[in-house]
Design a protein that fits this description.
mainly alpha, Rossmann fold, Serine Threonine Protein Phosphatase 5, Tetratricopeptide repeat, DNA Cyclobutane Dipyrimidine Photolyase, subunit A, domain 3, 5-stranded parallel β-sheet, 20 helices, globular, binds flavin-adenine dinucleotide, lyase, Crypto/Photolyase_FAD-like_sf
Length: about 475
């Protein structure tokens, strides 16, 4: 009797515990379900759908090379899986664990919908540790990052990554499946994703290419990670989000065999662990994306997006036309490639929340739709961190000065790349052309002066602190 593999955000064959378990037990039916119903308003955004299309195509090809195939279906995951299990007489559904609240719901619906003959078996492997596993001495989950990191580090290194099974046996007959192209995950008119294809190769092979490239420069990460003009970060986030590579694999590859190497790449591993931390936060607070965690911050007098001038500010931010070159470069990189450098994400999000006093949830929504790595845990945790509304930070008053940040982290080349109106400006003028009197007419004036925006944010905060 066959086993089903239920793929979600774990679109790989190597170091994939559900694949290994299913393949070792007999014939296998690999299934991916495009489920826009279960996550409700959290269904995947446009950029993620682009990635998903290519990632599924790549996974299907890998399975075919093993004599298997990927069955595609769309609709309610629990219902569809229960039906496939009934039709095919499957005895187990193997899946990797995920922590988005909608997946936890889907799992419990599925358990209720399955006949007695079939069971859902959940495996770990998308994170260095399962969410909820790292606890304080008194058994409570951590809320703050640094003690979480220290406790998790003690449990490392993770298990060695497992290879792809030699064989994945086909069942006697295959259930029906959809054609990937019929899902229309790719944009048509206008095709906003041409820059995506130039920058990314979704799938396991693409993940390996980025990891290989990063290993050579990993020792420069500590200093290089803040420099958007340089290519000194790993660009693995969408691959990790879609589970095309396991974090265990990355940990082992980056640290190598030499225990002394750990120190030189510790900063990188610490960032990788932010991803685990974010899952722990949404596991403890499933509604993290819905409202500010800190109750008093829910009363912060955000500007109302129904007002036309606020709408215009939001539009200027999202289109990269704020008159702040570093913010505009970041927002245009995001639109063109589906990704933005972390330092610039911090600057651009701070600008929206503080200088424009627009609710962090609006920015989070924009990122959700436009990032190829849009991730419920990482996105909401980072937005709430920046807004000072979250579990771990109450630093609303830490207002980043975009122009100072731009200079400090040498963003000149980055700006010249993404803001063509400023291509002829040299450092240091490029960071603030308006102030230096060299703003080209084609480039917008600042939508708000730094001091004015800063003061308005502080006044708003004074009302709730
Ligand atoms: P590297 O610097 O090479 O880091 C390696 C890996 O560690 C990343 O691939 C990522 O998986 C993880 N990581 C690094 N920093 C963080 C972090 N702060 N939080 C969580 N994980 C981290 N990351 C997402 O994956 N999805 C998101 O939706 C997301 N939204 C963000 C929103 C805001 C406002 C901010 C400030 C950050 C957000 N991040 C998000 C975190 C971070 O910006 C990206 O993970 C990182 O830029 C990805 O590039 P990289 O793979 O080169 O990262």
């Amino acid at each position: 009797k066959p086993n089903i593999i239920w793929f979600r955000r774990d679109l790989r064959l190597s170091d994939q515990a559900a694949v290994i378990a299913a393949a070792s037990e007999g014939p296998v039916i690999p299934v991916y379900i495009l489920d826009d119903e279960t996550p409700k308003h959290r269904k995947m955004g446009g950029a993620s759908r682009w990635w998903l299309h290519h990632s599924l195509a790549s996974l299907a090809q890998r399975l075919e090379e093993k004599g298997s195939r990927l069955i595609l279906r769309s609709g309610d995951s629990a219902e569809i899986l229960a039906n496939i299990a009934r039709q095919t007489g499957a005895i187990k559904i193997h899946a990797l664990r995920h922590y988005e609240p909608w997946w936890l719901n889907a799992e419990s619906h599925l358990q209720g919908a399955l006949d007695d003959e079939c069971e859902l078996v959940l495996h770990d492997g998308n994170y260095l540790q399962p969410a909820g596993a790292i606890t304080t001495g008194s058994g409570d989950p951590y809320k703050i990052y640094t003690p979480f990191w220290k406790a998790l580090r003690e449990t490392m290194p993770p298990p060695e990554p497992q290879p792809v099974p030699q064989q994945i046996n086909a069942p006697n007959s295959w259930p029906d499946g959809d054609d990937l192209n019929d899902w229309e995950l790719l944009p048509t008119k206008p095709n906003w994703a041409t820059g995506f294809a130039e920058n990314w190769k979704p799938g396991e092979d693409g993940a390996r290419v980025n990891l290989d490239a990063f290993v050579d420069i990993a020792k420069q990460y500590d200093e290089g990670r803040n420099l958007p003009s340089e290519q000194l970060v790993s660009r693995l986030s969408p691959h990790l989000h879609f589970g095309e590579i396991s974090p265990n694999h990355i940990w082992h590859r980056v640290t190598g065999k030499d225990p002394a190497a750990f120190k030189s790449v510790e900063t990188y591993l610490k960032e990788l662990v932010w991803r685990d931390y974010a899952q722990n936060v949404i596991y403890q607070c499933p509604q993290y994306g819905g409202e500010s965690y800190r109750e008093k911050m829910r009363d912060l007098p955000w500007r109302d997006l129904n007002d036309t001038d606020v709408q215009a500010d939001f539009e200027a931010w999202s289109q990269g036309k704020t008159g702040y070159p570093i913010v505009d470069a970041g927002m245009r990189e995001l639109w063109a490639t589906g990704w933005m450098h972390n330092r610039v994400r911090m600057i651009a999000s701070s600008f929206l929340i503080k200088h424009l006093l627009i609710d962090w949830r609006e920015g989070e929504k924009w990122f959700w739709d436009t990032l190829v790595d849009a991730d419920y845990g990482s996105n909401t945790v980072n937005w709430q961190w920046g807004a000072g509304t979250g579990v771990d930070s109450n630093m609303f008053v830490r207002i980043m000065a975009p122009l100072t940040q731009s200079e400090k982290f040498n963003a000149g080349d980055y700006i010249r790349k993404w803001v063509p109106e400023l291509v002829n400006l040299d450092d240091p003028y490029i960071h603030d052309p308006e102030e230096h009197g060299c703003r080209p007419n084609s480039y917008p004036t600042k939508i708000i002066a730094h001091k004015k925006g800063r003061q308005r944010a502080l006044d708003a905060y004074a009302k709730v602190k």
